[in-house]
């Protein structure tokens, strides 16, 4: 059995969680405490409107948000205006509210709509799913929060728990391209309607070696399924293999099903008329490209700069620091509750130097 390790890396405005099995990344989460996705949150809500055509009902939640409660998860037989205790089971998506499930209360529920409790973060969810895994974090506050629930499984590291290699993997998860062993690459393009994944054969492309094409595509299936899982991609997913006639693509379906078997949310639908492998993945958590933005949002760029800046400050403590970035990045950081305060506490005061021409990803924190 693979030895599992959960790493929780906390930086200003953000926490990143990784599950490693024998050193290989098996799960990845990027969470922002100021913008929680809500999965697992427990609410008191009011059934606002029945939706028979959708086999469910809309429920008004705190803060003006509206969630959807399917008949199969507790809406059936309920009446408009009724107060319910509900849990969020699927993160909100593209303007649509979260998916809900009814959670019976031990006593009568009355209004107003309110949040009763937050759901577990990624570290706690992974710890529950992998009870033998140790948890390491570089945040003393996170260690103190987790120890009452996880006990001696939790350890605190004064040094960053993400090494350069793991930081690089998380950077790759934020991008479109994934290099394949042996050459070639995956290109991942999420759209509002579906996710398109293209296989570039690299040096194999244009060759006449059918066995090489087959070997490349067979190796690609496992990596495609892994990337889908790590990125929390959801909905319709189309995978376009490199070369190969339709009959040989169909022959790869059993291998695709085997690769998808490790992910309980992923289902292989079949082959489309154009020869694309069609997959469907149930949405639970927010896909990484929605958290980070595509291209990366001003907040993502700013938080990445703060993350790098904290590491620089640990290497050179006491030096006054300056952030050089586009003004939109600075404004996004100022609008993110607690991010700049957390940086000041960890690394010291930070001043801002505006650069309207600063390219995305080139934000820099340096000694003043």
From TrEMBL:
Region (Disordered): 95-114
Annotated Pfam families: RNase_E_G
InterPro entries in the cross-refs: RNA-bd_AU-1/RNase_E/G, RNase_E/G
All copies of domain RNA-binding protein AU-1/Ribonuclease E/G, residue ranges: 145-284
Cofactor(s) essential for the protein: Mg(2+)
Domain of life: Bacteria
Keyword entries, A-Z: Endonuclease, Hydrolase, Magnesium, Metal-binding, Nuclease, RNA-binding
Full protein name: Ribonuclease E/G
The organism's taxonomic lineage, starting at the top: Bacteria, Pseudomonadati, Pseudomonadota, Alphaproteobacteria, Acetobacterales
